[in-house]
Design brief:
The protein is built from 11 helices and 14 strands. It is α+β, with helices and mostly antiparallel strands. The longest helix is centred in the N-terminal third of the chain and has 18 residues. It binds 7-O-phosphono-alpha-L-galacto-hept-2-ulopyranose (VTB). The site of 7-O-phosphono-alpha-L-galacto-hept-2-ulopyranose has 10 residues, from helix 6 and strand 8.
Length: 334
């Protein structure tokens, strides 16, 4: 895939973030999500790709845009065929309340290289580059934490594990505490939490927990680009979720509960990841309105093949960009 796609991709998350940010703290997560979807959908049409959404906003009948199977891109049949994973607004609860770490994310890889994950829960274990190769999701938590601490040359007591604050994680939390490590709880948004393991300045070493499987694939692309590591196991919790696993080819219990390695989640290294901060985050700053129709965004864009990670700080003129103007007219929340 053309390396310029990395810089193109960041426009997509920037537009979604700018469209959604006006809804911060307004208590309406659905409106914020719709704005992010509208922004992302329109920005995609400027990209020289023939993309198919494989991870998106649900099925055709339940989501009007960016549904699974939707084709996006510039419309040129000769453009490169790619699989796309989107989460236009990762953390709808976060934006509705103005809480940290709401982001807009997108990942792409050549056709067939992203796991077509069912919309179910997934157990995930993620670490940054220094701990690549030492994790084993089937092994006891204590053993994983000891190995990660050793790889990072840290005392176990200094290791920080980020865990989503949910009752389903009570047993994990207890095990982590018994092992002696520290815990950082977060309310929502496990893509941002998984990515944090790849950046030492966040102080986060390990992400462990059960969250959305689609979010797991998106996080995996970022970890692939960063040289980190991740393992996962699907974790359907209801008969409907088991059915969704079967629909996507996970035919037997053995298939469903098989360990998914980073390579199973995203094949090869020809992948790209982009994220833009919407609310203030550990890694990315929020959208900031500067007055005079200007707004600033902070994004990260990564390329798997070379491992390059770029932070992009951009100043947007909201009334001078066709796509933005169009989307903001639909969502005039500023
Ligand atoms: C997960 C997680 C997401 O929502 O899907 C979570 O992957 C849902 O968990 O990052 P609950 O059903 O317990 O709320 C997010 O946190 C945000 O979409």
């Amino acid at each position: 895939m053309d390396r310029n796609l990395a810089m193109e991709l960041v426009r997509v998350t920037e537009t979604a973030a700018l469209a959604a940010a006006g809804y911060m703290g307004r208590g309406d997560k659905n409106a914020a999500d719709q704005a992010a979807v509208d922004g992302m959908r329109r920005a995609f049409s400027g990209l020289s790709i023939k993309g198919t959404v494989v991870i998106g906003e649900g099925e055709l009948d339940e989501a009007p845009m960016l549904y699974i199977g939707e084709e996006v891109g510039c419309g040129d049949p000769r453009a490169v065929e790619v699989d796309i994973a989107v989460d236009p607004l990762e953390g709808t609860n976060l934006i509705a309340k103005g809480l940290p770490n709401a982001i807009s994310v997108v990942a792409i890889a050549p056709k067939g290289c992203l796991l077509h994950a069912p919309d179910t829960y997934m157990l995930k274990l993620a670490v940054g580059p220094k701990a690549k190769g030492v994790i084993d999701i089937k092994a006891p938590i204590k053993d994983n934490l000891s190995k990660v601490a050793e790889a990072l040359n840290k005392n176990l007591e200094d290791l920080t594990v980020i865990v989503q604050d949910r009752p389903r994680h009570d047993a994990f939390i207890q095990e982590i505490r018994e092992a002696g490590a520290r815990i950082k709880l977060f309310s929502d948004g496990d893509v941002a939490a998984a990515i944090a393991t790849g950046f030492e300045e966040t102080g986060v070493d390990v992400m462990l927990g059960i969250g959305g499987a689609p979010e797991g694939v998106i996080a995996a692309v970022a970890l692939k680009c960063m040289g980190g590591d991740m393992q996962a196991i699907l974790n359907p919790m209801s008969p409907e979720e088991f059915e969704r696993c079967r629909e996507l080819g996970f035919a037997s219990e053995e298939e469903i509960y098989r360990v998914l390695t980073l390579e199973d989640l995203v094949k090869g290294e020809d992948c790209y990841f982009a994220a833009t901060g919407i609310t203030q985050g550990d890694l990315l700053k929020s959208v900031v309105y500067k007055g005079n129709n200007m707004a600033e965004t902070h994004s990260v864009v990564m390329r798997g093949k070379t491992g390059t990670i770029r932070f992009v700080q951009a100043m947007h003129r909201l009334n001078k960009t066709d796509v933005l103007e169009e989307v903001l007219k639909l969502h005039p929340q500023r």
